[in-house]
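Hi everyone,

Forwarding the result from last night's run.
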Amino acid sequence: MELIDQHTKKIMEGCKKRARAVGLRFQDETLEYIVTNRDLLEISPKMMIPTLYDYWVHDVEVLKEKGKYELYPGNPYETVINTRPAISFYNDNNPDWMNVMIFYHVLAHIDFFQNNLFFQHTWDYDFTGSALSDKRMIAKLRSEKGRWVDYIIEFSRGIDNLVGYHAELSRLNRPPGTDQSKMLDFYFDVFLQSNKKIKINVKKQIITESKYNERLPSLSPGTRF
């Protein structure tokens, strides 16, 4: 795996100017690597993050993909990850003119990642650098604790499947909290429930609807989901 040559890099910088001219928005810095088929097979189980920690499941996936490749050879033309700076990988079988054309496709990916609210928590996150730091820490712990580290990793990867993006989106454009008056609390908590014997569900519905109505003006019309 190696960086593209300066001649191709200069051409790709021209691609950025033309992409911006038609409305794409992305950061200036990018990294482009030329990779072999073997490189792709080895970093694919690591979600294309070369600095990700070593783990036995990754080794099993590499062996599986090598077997599949021998029967049905084939690799993607390119892959891009939304780190800082964005990194893209190009198959060494691609001619230079094809990599330049593919780079326009990569720029569209980067524009999508860097301007989409679903990926907001990655906008300022250099996860390749963070992954390298974690890899070194895990290697140190393995030397001290042995196989127990892999048990912890396996457990952590299991609960990671429960993590979603809804919590991130719920914090966007959230209106600031307001202090409710004691009279309002008395009306909902005492008068309606104790005196009028109204079920609590009615209270929840009223509060939910009022919060929803307050939230509508705060949503930006240009927000991209």
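The chain has two domains: 2-160, 173-225.

Cheers,
N.
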